[in-house]
Design brief:
Blueprint lengths: L1 H19 L9 H4 L3 E8 L2 E9 L5 E4 L1 H4 L4 E6 L10 E2 L1 E6 L4 E5 L10 E2 L8 E6 L17 E13 L8 E6 L11 E4 L4 E7 L2 E2 L5 E2 L3 E5 H10 L6 E2 L14 H55 L23 E6 L5 E6 L1 H6 L1 E4 L7 E2 L10 E6 L2 E6 L6 E3 L2 E2 L6 E3 L4 E4 L2 E7 L1
Helix pairs in contact: 1-5
């Protein structure tokens, strides 16, 4: 009763795990990554321009686009989550910029923000990517109650192309992707699924050679352009050499990753329980099949022995004037000895039975001759005649068989002679004749 209840319970758990525990794909921990992204404010006489930047080291260095900070205005940053007001502006100092690469590096004193790691692996076409930034974050007066809250958009890396940001400028590696960008995203990080930077977002659209605006595709400076520039200026940055799988996570505190892990564990456990229940279900039929086959094999051997014992009633032809002499009786072979308890064991091996084979073991249902000792297997050895030679074969017994103290291999027959010592498990027997 308990077994049937357990089997039913296992299948119910498997069903519920499949319905309510979907294998969700882990994504970056955006709440943690958001702490490394800041709003860039370029305050000029004509008004205020904004963009996005991200922290690259412990010294408060921030990467953004050159077109975000150009114009000679005062540069500030606002931490994510703060109101965009004059009181919350942090002064920033320009450390380096390149109009050709459209990249710039600022330094903000007292900026206690975690840094982002730069990817050291080649971006693969079709990889999942994410863009973080502050599109349309501030008005031209900075008198607003709006909070600098970043937005996240996702997409795929379409390809890496050779291009340039302005006419007749240096040819650069540019990432073409499908993560939506808008005004204010410029200078923000393009991240892979592990949260490492693979590019710096720069343009939300481009014109074709015919002048048509290409929709649905967005562009970023490839990470190799940023790394080479930072290295040339001897700026400190952190590069990760770990390859990113689509199901990887950034930190161990990622709730999405935890949900995915729990779902995997629940489903895996349910499958194991269901398999165990299936084994319990099939165990009894398997035992019945084995028992049926062994019983049929035993019956077949009995039939062959019985047929060999049937008397021949035909009258032999005797030549005229011949004299019938009594035939000499053939000796019967015997295996005799004692079991582990000191009980005598005496096995007579008639010649007729040896011709078809005699099975010796502990189970009366499976063998022809029984040795009642716990060290003897249910089917232990088979003894038979082969071309007038007496052969002994171990049938894969549990405790093995020895002939003259030498262990024989299962299913490899050995010949026997008068006086040989045979050990079946713990039972020692001697071959003789009577």
């Amino acid at each position: 009763m308990f077994k049937h209840f357990y089997i039913l319970f296992c299948y119910v758990v498997l069903l519920f795990s499949m319905l309510f525990s979907p294998l969700t794909q882990a994504v970056p921990d955006f709440e943690q990554l958001d702490k490394s992204v800041v709003l860039i404010v370029n305050k000029q006489h004509a008004g205020v321009a904004t963009g996005t930047g991200f922290v690259i080291n412990e010294q408060g260095y921030v990467v953004t686009n050159n077109h975000v900070i150009e114009g000679g205005g005062e540069l500030f940053v606002v931490d994510g989550g703060e109101q965009i007001t004059r009181e919350n502006l942090r002064s920033a100092r320009l450390k380096w910029s390149s109009a050709t690469k459209d990249l710039a590096v600022l330094q903000v004193n007292g900026l206690n923000r975690p840094y982002l790691k730069l990817s050291g692996f080649e971006l693969v076409k079709g990889s999942r990517i994410h863009a973080i930034g502050f599109p349309g974050a501030a008005s031209s007066t900075l008198n607003t109650d709006d909070v600098a809250e970043s937005t996240v958009s996702g997409g795929e890396a379409s390809r890496i192309v050779d291009g340039h940001w302005s006419d007749n400028s240096q040819v650069l590696q540019i990432v073409q992707h499908t993560a939506a960008l808008n005004g204010g995203n410029s200078g923000g990080p393009l991240l892979n699924n592990c949260g490492a930077v693979v590019g710096v977002n720069t343009m939300k659209s481009m014109q074709s050679e015919s002048g048509e605006i290409i929709q649905g595709l967005f562009y970023a400076s490839y990470i190799s352009e940023l790394v080479s520039s930072l290295s040339a200026q001897n700026f400190i940055f952190h590069e990760t050499s770990e390859s990113c799988k689509l199901s990887s996570t950034v930190t161990g505190d990622n709730p999405n990753a935890a949900q995915s892990g729990v779902s995997l564990w629940i489903t895996g456990l349910a499958i194991l329980m269901a398999l165990f229940a299936l084994v319990l279900t099939l165990r009894r039929p398997r035992q019945q099949i084995v028992q049926t086959v062994e019983s049929y094999s035993h019956w077949l051997r009995r039939s062959e022995v019985k047929k060999a014992k049937e008397p021949d009633y035909s009258v032999p032809s005797v030549p005229e004037h011949s004299v019938l002499k009594p035939s000499k009786k053939e000796p019967i072979l015997v295996l005799s000895g004692f079991d582990a308890n000191g009980q005598a064991v005496h096995l007579r091996l008639p010649g007729e039975q040896l011709k078809v084979g005699i099975m010796i073991g502990r189970s009366a249902k499976l063998v022809d001759m029984v040795v009642r000792d716990s060290s003897v297997s249910r089917r232990h050895v088979k003894i038979y005649l082969k071309a007038s030679a007496l052969m002994l074969e171990d049938v894969n017994s549990s405790n093995g068989t020895q002939v003259n103290t030498k262990t024989i291999s299962p299913f490899k027959a050995v010949s026997m002679n008068m006086g040989d010592k045979v050990k079946l498990g713990g039972v020692e027997l001697t071959l003789s004749a009577e």
